[in-house]
Amino acid sequence: MLTPAPHPELILLARRCYVTTSLPPRANALAIAHGRVIAAGPRRSVLRLRGRGTRVVDLGNAVLTPGIVDCHTHFFYWALGRSLVIDLSALHSLNAMLRVLHTGARRRRVGDWVLARGLDANRWDGRLPCAADLDAAVPDVPLMAHSRDGHTVCLNTIALRRANITARTPDPKGGRYWRDGRGRPTGIVQESAINSLPDPLRDFARRTDEAAQRAIDRALAKAYEVAHAHGVVAVHAMDDSASLFHLQRQHAQRRLGLRVVHAIPLGNFDRARELGLRSGFGDNWLRIGGIKIFADGALGSQTAYMFDPYPGRAGYCGIPVAAQEELRSTVRELAQHGWAAWIHAIGDRAVHEAVGAIVAAGRTETAGIPHRIEHAQCIRRPDMRRMARAGIVASVQPCHVLGDIPIADRHWPQARRHAFPLRSLLDAGVMLACGSDVPIEAIDPRRSLFAAVTRTDECGQPAGGWYPRQRLRAHEVIGAFTRGAAAAAGLPPPAGTLAPGAPADLTIWAADPLRARPDELLHLGILGCAIDGQLHLTSDS
Fold first, then answer.
1. Which of 142-151, 234-243, 397-406, 488-497 has the lowest mean pLDDT?
2. pLDDT classification of 323: cutoffs 50, 70, 90
3. Between 210-229 and 75-84, two packed helices, what is the crossing angle to 10 degrees?
4. Which pLDDT belongs to residue 26?
5. Does residue 198 contact residue 162 with C-beta atoms inside 8 Å?
């Protein structure tokens, strides 16, 4: 614990301040100096510490919690996408999607490509658009539309030609090109086959010329503002080397708007190892996390790797991106070189194999950063117990419950009882770390808070909650966004709290998220945040 400074730089007064999320509030004032909390307690005692240069900010009836950390994002590409990519996420019919693509293609281009994201065929009859559908909307330039979960891409005919995908193109290991009855590609691409496609947005991100950097900096600045308005103080980023390059550039220029823990894709592991890097390298603003590995696909695309076959698809259990022995060998090598494994695993069989690979490696953490299962959407109880014993973090996104209830009912009729088992994980002793998976979901912690507490969709269905025994309490969800997030990044206590000595990172709520009614959580006011003791308040605060 740090010795309190004689005079704090900033004192915040509020209705209530949760120093941690596991104890009743015992403070309504915070004193901050040099980017850290130096005191928390009653107003009168904290105000005694002020000096001639102390700034006192009275936040009225606001409630302070430790700062929300979004533990699973694609932050950099979300920022770029907000500026350059057509958003399909709110559309509920194929025809509506085609109309938006036709109109948007005139205004938004990345080079000579039209890019779109957020496609969700589960919102209509489940039929993914093929090249012929997309040609009707955008016939004259290459078009690439990514699904909401990121595990399916739909191309028009020109894009198929640009990608050199023909009837003779073989399916890669762990991927698939959909074909018609004559073996011709339909324009639908899944899993590892996506890696063979051109990536115009990533090509743009790799540019280092001044024009591109200005565009990227503008996109990031707007994204930081959105994150601050939602009370987010830090993110764990699952992006690539271009993301890390530009975030490092901004960090050197003191323009980084959030704290970032950045994963490294498995494809960059050899280069990172040759440079002598390892998990934990960096500082308290930008540091390296684990190596991101894919074990399977996703629920919405029916590529999550399951023990039980998908209904109506005899013998088909999803797509294992990495076979069991390959996964074990990879995780063992990572641990030997000081790297934590952050494994994307959604289906129950993928989670089983990912946990087995980590346990077989014989080391639970590297450089203080634990191994993690990203998403962990469907898990059998024996694997929960194995995760707890091995100290493996479950990096979960409860917000996915809001849209995935009917999809899980449809595609996982047997396994759905194991889906999003948040209470069972916590009761088994597994550390939870919460995130949004932005841009698949909004970077809004209230969505996960509401979903985890109610187990319903945004309309309150199903009544009484979906497998309601798996509900969490609000303080447990906030704890997963704070103390859980700190543990998942290898940050020792008091990180993730507002106790003296902790970084002065906090979220400012208009009302108490730990005392609100469940139906109020989705729209609870957020007034902003503070990062390193610097306030970022919304305009109406």
1. 142-151
2. confident
3. 110
4. 75
5. yes
CATH class of residue range 86-201: alpha beta
Gap between the Cα atoms of 85 and 80, Å rounded: 8
CA angle, residues 180, 112, 215, in degrees to nearest 5: 130
Q: Which residues pair with 188 in a beta bridge?
A: 154
Q: What is the pLDDT of residue 297?
A: 92
- What is the DSSP-derived secondary structure letter of residue 323? -
- Alpha-carbon span 422 to 445, nearest angstrom: 16
Distances from the Cα of 379 to the Cα of 249, 327, 384, angstroms: 39, 18, 7
Q: In what order do the strands lie in the sheet with 232-237?
A: 68-73, 232-237, 259-265, 286-294, 341-345, 372-375, 393-396, 432-434
517 phi/psi in degrees, rounded to 5: -65, 150
Q: How far apart are CA 382 and CA 307, in angstroms?
A: 14
Of the candidates 68, 3, 69, 65, the residue with the CA atom closest to the CA atom of residue 34: 3
Tokens representing residue 125 in the block = 């009859």
Helix (H, G, I), strand (E, B) or coil at 432: strand
**pLDDT over 70 at 366, yes or no:** no
With contact defined as beta carbons under 8 Å apart, do 280 and 287 qualify? yes
pLDDT band at 300 (very low <50, low <70, confident <90, very high): confident
Pairing assessment for the beta strands 393-396 and 365-366 based on DSSP bridges? unpaired
pLDDT at 125 over 90: no
Q: Please give the Cα distance from 320 to 296 (Å, whole number).
A: 5
At 322, is the pLDDT very low, low, confident or very high (cuts 50, 70, 90)?
confident
Residue 238, φ and ψ in degrees, nearest 5: -110, 40
- Neighbouring-strand partners of residue 232: 68
Length of the chain: 541
SS3 (DSSP) at 372: strand
Residue ranges of the chain assigned to CATH 2.30.40.10: 1-61+498-541
Superfamily per CATH, domain 1-61+498-541: Urease, subunit C, domain 1 (2.30.40.10)
**Helix (H, G, I), strand (E, B), or coil: what is residue 534?**
strand
Residue 202 confidence (pLDDT) above 50: yes
Query: What is the chain's mean pLDDT, rounded?
Result: 94
Supply 240's token pair.
Answer: 């690539």
**238-258 b/e (C-beta count within 10 Å ≥ 16 → b):** bbbbbbbebbeebeeeeebbb
Q: Residue range 422-447: average pLDDT?
A: 97
pLDDT grade for 53, boundaries at 50, 70 and 90: very high
Instruction: Please state, in angstroms and rounded to a whole number, the distance separating the CA atoms of residues 257 and 100.
Output: 32
And the tokens for 163? 């990608």
Please give the backbone phi and psi of residue 226, each rounded to the nearest 5 degrees, phi first: -65, -45
The residue type found at 221 is A
